[in-house]
């Protein structure tokens, strides 16, 4: 009875279309952004980008720096001149903070614009909260995040890719191309994900020919590899050994099972979305994201890991997972709502999928996601005994509560978490909070907010 009442009140709340109706949700999102994404200063890759910008401000001082002297990534982006102009106006500290703030603002705006293309206003706001709450890590070793706390061109480039995707959904191809070009001028590697995403429409129409082309290309490259025709485009053994020792995240064969799980759970979530989401716009997003993810695995795995082609390895196709992961999270609210309407079996699948996302960065998350695919098969084939569905139901509920139980019972929950709230430390430093248990905390907070607001509105 309580669950049915909560469902009814939540549905009534999200059915409203007035922006003012969701001020509480926006306030929650602002709270999450302030708490989880404090500015980290000139740290991490921001040091490299700041050095490149300073070389434009005072070339006589920096032109002989070993990082810049023999060429760097600076010649592939317009970000450094922009950053340099802001440094001359405001100084290094303020310029870095300002560009980071602009990046966050553009990114969140692009996420909301894209979400509002495929779902009602209220659910789109909720989806923005999920994007901020679920870990934005992609790739290996948790080095890269599509939401960063310091100044880089990556987040700006990602924002323009999302604007491009939103225009693509509206079939405004010229506008989409313009946004993608801006993204490429800021960071070509991040923009490549958007290019593959937009090319998916071509793949859908000619998928047989495209698949044949891919197979033929792979066979020819394998023959060329063993015939020693590709040597001039490959790493020499000594240089390859240096790269492998210092940058293990560049090669799939060095990824841990947790890294693989972090990448595959979003792909499995997209496969489930393909079967249960009906809207044409959403279908286009799902297919494009799946295409981008599969191409990332194929291009980097075959060209980088197997053939060790220098250009492919430098292209780092595994970075395309940032867009795949983001789209998978963005589609979660609609997917969970559709599943929740499919009686007990749908609710079981929804809970199992949420549990997989909660533990996405661990092997158990991948196993739960695979089990969710088994449930999809059982639903689609109308298969499964009463024992199977009873087991699936209680196992999904147990898995949903597992991260929160571990947070309380095991070592993650300690006084340092509370100290961090008052000292301004980053909560991302506590993996138990950030990577596994942020989502249930957010869901509880927002559901409580929604319930109270709906109760006040109805009484």
Which properties best describe this structure?
459 residues; mainly alpha; 75% helix
Total beta-strand segments: 2
Strand % is under 5%
Shape: globular
Helix share, percent = over 70%
Radius of gyration, in angstroms, nearest whole number:
23 Å
The main sheet comes to:
2 strands, antiparallel
Supply the number of helical segments. 23
Strand order of the largest sheet: 1-2
Low-confidence stretches: 421-436
| SSE string, helices as H and strands as E | HHHHHHHHEEHHHHHHHHHHHHHHH
Please, what is the average pLDDT? 80
Distance between the termini: 18 Å
Structural class per helix/strand content? mainly alpha
Task: Describe, in plain words, how this protein is organized in 3D.
The chain is 75% helix and 1% strand. The chain is built from 23 helices and two strands. It has helices at residues 2-14, 23-36, 46-57, 59-62, 66-69, 79-90, 92-118, 121-133, 153-169, 173-186, 188-205, 207-226, 237-246, 257-276, 280-306, 310-315, 321-340, 343-358, 363-380, 386-409, 415-423, 431-436, 438-458, and strands at 137-138, 144-145. Strands 1-2 form a two-stranded antiparallel ribbon. Residues 421-436 have low confidence and may be disordered.
